[in-house]
Amino acid sequence: MTQQNRIFLGTILLERNRWSKENRSPSYRVSDWTARIRDDGFDGLELWELHGLMVDDEERERLRTGPVPVALVNSYASCEPEDEEGRRRTAELAAFFDAEGMKFNFGREPAHKAKYIAVVREWATMFKPGFRMLSENHRGTITDDVEVAADVYRELHDVPLGAIIHFQSDETAYRERFGTYGDRLTHIHCSLSGEDGPMPEIEVCRRLEWLREFGFNGTFTMEFTEGVRGGLGIEELYRNAVRDLKILRRCLEKVG
Q1: Which residues contact 211 (CB under 8 A, 6 or more apart)?
Q2: Taking the domains of the chain in order of start, what are their residue ranges?
Q3: For residues 143 and 120, is the Cβ–Cβ distance under 8 A?
């Protein structure tokens, strides 16, 4: 396995309160799972930031010194100028874990594009050299529009700004995104299973072949799995994530 083919577990996958508006506090301790996560073949964690912020010092230390590294921080800090404190907390958390990067999103308001660019430029100064600032360019953010994204990435040409694509996107979306981001597209969020069950292995391999054709040679996070929206318990969700990991590994071995 190359460094580029590393696969992380997104801790949000197991989090019951991931989308709750009433209760965002963690429903489980990630450190209770880290030995198992390592033994089952994941290379690191993409840590939902509240799994590192809304916990005690003992839990943070167990995560920092645990058997599987915190590779990425999954940040929900805003790019609105007034959320300076949220961005600072994310930067401190990433430094504490010596994370290699973070996932974040630009804001929603097209009229604020210049403000978002200035915020990201300043945010980048809070991280160590080589840190991967990975914009998810999610639906509902200004950079979901590939033309706007192209402008943003041109403006931030001197900032180590990367991009994320979702594995379940279709070939047209892959083509558009790689045309916009080029070699800045270095990470993939994977959901190999929906509520109808796992994606057929032949389809997983086919998508990896597309990615290689477009020049992708980066890392992956198992972000969601079958049962996330269906109310499955944490143990069943974890088993589904491991099943998906094995499928992705087999296809990576075939495709290279």
Answers
A1: 174, 188
A2: 3-255
A3: no
Grouped pLDDT means (10 residues each) for the chain, 256 residues:
81 85 84 98 98 97 98 96 96 98 96 97 96 93 93 95 91 89 93 78 93 93 78 88 94 91
- DSSP state letter for 200: P
pLDDT value of position 256: 78
Extract the tokens encoding 218. 């980066």
Instruction: Supply the pLDDT for residue 208.
Output: 94
Helix (H, G, I), strand (E, B), or coil: what is residue 141?
A: coil
CATH fold of 3-255 reads TIM Barrel (3.20.20)
Q: ∠150-46-105 over CA atoms, to 5°? A: 30
CA atoms of 192 and 221, how far apart (whole Å): 11
Closest CA to 164 of 76, 225, 120, 105: 105
Burial class (CB in 10 A: 0-12, 13-18, 19+), 197: exposed
> Looking at the whole model, is its pTM more than 0.85?
yes
Residue with tokens 């389809």: 203
Beta strands in the chain (DSSP E): 7-10, 44-48, 70-74, 101-104, 132-135, 161-166, 185-191, 193-194, 197-198, 219-224
